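User: Okay, second chain of the day. Same drill as before: sequence in, structure tokens out.
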Amino acid sequence: MKKRTVALLLFDDVEVLDFAGPFEVFSVTNELNNYTLFDILTVAQSREPIRAKNGLVVQPDHAMADVSNPDVVIIPGGSGTRAVLRDPNTMAWVQTSASNAELVLSICTGSLILAALGLLSGLRATTHHENLDELSDLAPDATIVRGERYVDNGQIITSGGISAGIDMSLGVVERLMGAEVRRTTASYMEWREYND
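Assistant: Same drill. Structure tokens below.
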């Protein structure tokens, strides 16, 4: 089985669980399989520390310029996505990476970045429940889905806010590695499926 590179975008004012939840899912899955499944990279404009929402400081592994052709691209959300929308370098990296990736995942308002790049055109998509109208404005030809934890279009998968990214990531683990690997990861994390 091919070892996949997972690139997780970081930026100032990123929502912590948006990136930490998927990071944990892919990292735990990798750990439980002798680190043979994924190379998990955090990527930002530079290797300078970023300040996530509510003040958590995180040191990215790589500058975007040093990461090309990841297999899985993860775009988290948070209030910092608005600055990303105005940052041509980050937007170009997402555009290029998404065009070559096996899978592109967004959590929460990370979907706004995909929408602004035209990547949600003609697709079903979701985001944090408070930002559904904003997503609709940026992707007028997408079908905006309310009330689902995540929406899987094949290559592009969008999720609702914050903890929904964990469910989405577990769904991706199941797609790539099978239901038993997903169950083992969820059990280790003591994660229960969302039933509300």
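Residues 16-32 form the longest helix (17 residues).

User: Thanks, on to the next one.
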